[in-house]
Specification:
This protein is mainly beta and 173 residues long. 12% of the residues lie in helices and 39% in strands. It has one domain: CheA-289, Domain 4 (OB fold (Dihydrolipoamide Acetyltransferase, E2P)). The two termini are 18 Å apart.
């Protein structure tokens, strides 16, 4: 994968805690449809043009296909339906592929409708007790430019067995 900016590398070394304790973080802002989300810059390995997706035989609501980025096969996932957005979408000229490292030498991709390339600073708000039932998914929020923006954490929206499915998809290529 491409080199990570030195700034992002320094942030990654200091960003082990995800409790939402009011700390300052750097975010990319991306869109699914007309809804904006923040994603911690330390979670994004690379932003790329979507390229051509290769369909996979065991396609599901989760797996959109795979892409080959410089010889590395990367599964592309679709989490839109899980977060309450229509799952179908068309690639546009502003669509971008966000790549994430989920384990050493293991990557996943997700297509956003648009992304701001300028990193934005935001304060991560504390997670309120009893915001969700046990096991229920929810978004943390960050205050960025005086607005609350949902913070998208890819690993929060994937179940443990799905990581194994994604690994099997990559190994089949």
């Amino acid at each position: 994968m491409s080199q990570i900016l030195p700034l992002i590398r320094r942030l990654a070394q200091n960003a082990g805690d995800r409790s939402g304790d009011g700390r300052l973080e750097k975010f990319f802002i991306f869109r699914f449809g007309d809804k904006s989300y923040a994603i911690p810059a330390v979670d994004v390995t690379e932003v790329a043009m979507p390229g051509s997706l290769i369909e996979v035989p065991q396609k599901s609501e989760l797996i959109r296909g795979v892409v080959n980025i410089r010889g590395t096969v990367i599964p592309v996932i679709n989490l839109r339906q899980r977060i309450g957005i229509a799952p179908d979408y068309q690639l546009g000229e502003n669509s971008r592929l966000l790549l994430f490292t989920v384990r050493p030498n293991a990557f996943i991709g997700m297509i956003a409708d648009d992304i701001e390339y300028r990193l934005r600073e935001g304060i991560v708000e504390p997670v309120l007790p009893n915001i969700a039932e046990p096991g229920e998914k929810f978004f943390r929020t960050a205050v960025i430019d005086s607005q609350r923006v949902p913070v998208f954490m890819v690993d929060t929206w994937l179940e443990k067995p799905e990581f194994e499915i994604l690994r099997n998809v990559v190994e089949s290529f």
